[in-house]
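Q: Got a minute? One more chain.
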Amino acid sequence: MILLLLFTSSSAIFSQETHFTISGKVIDKNTKASLASASVFAQNTTLGVATDPDGNFKLNLPAGGYALVITFTGYETVTMHINNTSVANNIMVELQPKEKAMEEVSVVSSNIVKDGWQKYGQFFTENFIGKSEFSKQATIKNPEALKFYFSKKRNRLKVVATDPVLVVNEALGYNLKFAIDSFTYEYNTNATQFVGYPLFEEMTGNPQQQATWKENRIKAYSGSLLHFMRSLFHKTIASDGFEVQFLVKSNDNEKTIFVTNIYAALNYSKDDSTNIVEFFPNQPDIVVIYKNAKPQQSFLEFDPKAKKDFQVSVLTVTPDHSIIIEQNGYYFEQSDLIINGYWGFEKIGDMLPYDYKNE
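A: Always. Here it is, folded:
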C-alpha cells in the first residue's frame, strides 16, 4: 500500500467540549482528481460520511480515539489514527489505485475455490460472526461478495471481499458494512488472522424492538473487551467486576499469579494533556476474569474445560510493547495485543461500536 497524508493545519477544531470535527479531501494519488462518494468513517463506530462531488468530507466525533478509514472501489484502503487532541483538519488524503496485475497474480497463485461459499461459508460465518447467542441472530446479506482461496501447499484458507460485507445483527439492532481486506485461517496451527474495517448503522424499530436491543447491548457490553478497556482507563476495574492476574509460563507449565495492586503491576500511567492511558504489564500474559456473569452455554460447548462460574480471557501483549487506551475504549496498536479465551470466542455478533454509551 502506498499512501500520502498531507496535513495543512495542526490544530483540532472542537464543535463542543465533548466532540471534535475532522475534515479533509480525498483525491487520486496519480491524477490528483477528486474522488466523489469515497467512504470516510471511524472504524467500529456508527459515524461515517461519503465525500461530496469535490471529494470533501467533514465528520463530527465524540471525544476519544479512532482509526479513521478511507475506502473507494478500486483503490487501496487508507487508515490513520486520530483523536480529539492531535487531529488535524483540511487533511489531503491521496488514494493509490490497486494494481490489477498484482491482483491477477494473487488470484492465480491462491487457487480460487469456485464453490467457495457452499464449501466454506459456514466455517467462515462461525469464525467471522461467531457462535454465540447473539451471533446466531446475525446474517451475511451478500455472500456473493466473498471470494475463497485455498492453498494446498500452505494448507491455508484465504477470504477476500470484492465489496463491503453487509451483516444484519437482529439481536443488537445494527446493520454492519464491513470492508474486509483479508481473512486467513491456518489449518496447521488453527490460527486466524483478520483485517477489516466495520461501520455500524443503528436499526430503526418499534418500541419493543428498541427495548430488546437496549437490553441485549447492555448484556453484550458487560464484561466485554470494550468494557474492560474503559474500566482500565477510568481505574474502575474492581468495582466493574473484573479481576486481573498474570499467567506465568515455565517450560510446559503454566500458573497464575494474583495481582494485588493492579495498576502498579500494569505500570499504568495517564497523560492528562492528551487524555490517554498507557499500560506496560510486568508480564506479557494477562488473565482477565469477569465475575458478574457466567459464560454462555455455547462457549462451554466450545471449551468444556472452561470455568463455569465466570468469564476468563487472556490478553497477550507483544514483549517490550505498551498499549495505549483512549477514553472511549479504543486501544492501539491493536496488532500488539492477542486475545484468547472468552473474548476470543466472541466475534462480530457480539461487537459494539466505540461510540456506544452504556446508559
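A: Residues 100-202 form one domain.
Q: Perfect, thanks.
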